[in-house]
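hi! just following up on the protien thing from before. the input was this:
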Amino acid sequence: MVIDEIGRREEVRAAQTSKDRGVRMIASAHGDLRKLVNNVELKGLIGGTESVTLGDEEARKRGSRSTTNGLQKQMTVRAGKPIFDVIIELKRGKLNEWNVIENVGKAVDDILNGGQYTVQKRMRCMNSGRIFVEKQKH
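and the predicted 3d structure came back as:
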């Protein structure tokens, strides 16, 4: 199944239902991975998010402090599995470059933990057509 421009919550639910039934999909959605994580309508594509409360010991172990010098016990985590296993980010005007996110779940977790995620940056040489690949943090 090919879906052009998933943009509403209902379309996200339909894509999830299709995946649950074993349908293979290719789809597009506007925004890079960080924007999808923060998009209320589309974050279901990456598994959704939920707020959890940590116990004192876990909060200490994570070393997260709130602005009031206490422990930060609230955190946002991924709620489920992403609908898509791989994301390919295309940038407007950069026809010979794209980023491949091979482990969407880990990348989302990295973003929610305030970190960077790994992408495979692929570049095509306009003259030779050769593809160059390098790992980068975003």
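Helices lie at 9-20, 33-38, 56-62, 104-112.
The chain has one domain: 2-137.
cheers
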